[in-house]
Amino acid sequence: MQFTKMHGLGNDFIVVHGETSLPADAAERAVKLCNRYFGIGADGLVYILPSERADFKMRIINSDGSEAEQCGNAIRCVAKYVYDNGLIGREAITIETLGAGVQPVQLEVEGGSVRRVRVDMGEPILNGLDVPTTIDANPVIGQTVEIDGRAFKFTAVSMGNPHAVIYVDDAVGFDLATWGPKLETHPLFPRKINVEFAKVNSAEQVDMRVWERGAGPTLACGTGACATLVSSVLNGLTGRSATISLAGGDLYIEWSEDNNRVYMTGPAEAVYTGTV
Ligand SMILES: N[C@@H](CCC[C@H](N)C(=O)O)C(=O)O
């Protein structure tokens, strides 16, 4: 299998192109290949497939073998892959995802190679049962989840995949390893959840660290950054656009008042190609 190792702000992927559909053993391959000691090492395995509705289709399998509906950092990597490898010559393309439909993507090209990508991430889903959570409210803001005697207040947002945003005093130093897995698998979240720990520093800048469903602590999460901005607007903490600073770098997120859609802008990098 030929692959390209890529990342968006350190959220890294094994990117595969050439299959016509998702292999039946994709989950097993993801677990093996994403292993950082016995495999290639990555947060996820990404397939670029043909689409009947868009220029390309993306499927993403987390490192634990579960399939995610959407991935913001992977979609930027897919956009870079298809342009840099000459699969498409346009700078405005569309990519179909499992959970967020067809997403319009704008490429920023320098010297024949994609540097940054702006993705129309679609409209956030705020109805609690649709995120999904077990809470019948719209939106789900300031709800409490209790774990081991500690209470966390969260806002639930789906960007095609589910997120819980929790505001903390220190996002950068937050103990992800203790609280991340317990929140991810809490019964309030029937399909598990990605958890963002956020500290709002100003109306234009937020620090965020993430514990990802199916992948654990990652250096960045594009959908998580979008969920954090939406949550911060709903909680009156930021304006409708802000820089979300992650361990791997910054993403710029906008939530349009005109069309209710969320836009994510950030880099994508190819590291190496290989055969396994
Ligand atoms: N890193 C991603 C999200 C990947 C999927 C996530 N772990 C899930 O299961 O929903 C991003 O950049 O959005």
UniProtKB/TrEMBL annotation:
Q: What is its EC number?
A: 5.1.1.7
Q: Where is this site: Could be important to modulate the pK values of the two catalytic cysteine residues?
A: H163, E212
The cross-references to InterPro entries, in alphabetical order and at most eight, read: DAP_epimerase_AS (IPR018510), DAP_epimerase_DapF (IPR001653)
Lineage, top-rank taxon, reads: Bacteria
What function is annotated for this protein? Catalyzes the stereoinversion of LL-2,6-diaminopimelate (L,L-DAP) to meso-diaminopimelate (meso-DAP), a precursor of L-lysine and an essential component of the bacterial peptidoglycan.
| UniProt family annotation | Belongs to the diaminopimelate epimerase family.
**Per its UniProt record, what HAMAP family does this chain match?**
DAP_epimerase
What protein name does the entry list? Diaminopimelate epimerase
Organism for this UniProt entry: Cohnella rhizosphaerae
